[in-house]
Design a protein that fits this description.
Length: about 170
Amino acid sequence: TLLLEAARRLVAERGPDAVTTDDIATAAGVGKGTLFRRFGSRSALMIELLDEDEKAHQHAFLFGPPPLGPGAPPLERLLAYGRARLEFVHAHLALLLEANRDPNARFNAPATLHHRHLRVLLEQAGTTGDLDAQAAALQALLDAEYVQHQLREGGHTLPSLADAWESVARK
């Protein structure tokens, strides 16, 4: 749609945090009300911008080649997932941060799928205990705000965050 094209272009030019809903509506030649009727919120628009890449990422871990996709042992898949998701979060950090301004975005369909995938891999790996809590803990280490904080303030690099995630996942 015109709104998505305008939003993609403006976000690519300025970054998501520097683009207002007024900017997007104006660039698309529609009123701001049209934008909100179509998407409901700014966060929902940001999630829509992420949708294509998110679907490709999901396809890779659900159906792609091992070790990320089926065919590798569960632990190998779990470790590959963590590294791939961390790379995805880093590559889409600004959009994810904007999308996460809506608290409901943290529990949307993609987040639920990621949680379920982690839980299934933990179960297949023979992990004991509360698998939902363990999946949530692993997922929290891949949260955009956490990743941003660790990269900016925590002295981490992307490889050191990946290594830390792998260390927790192995436990």
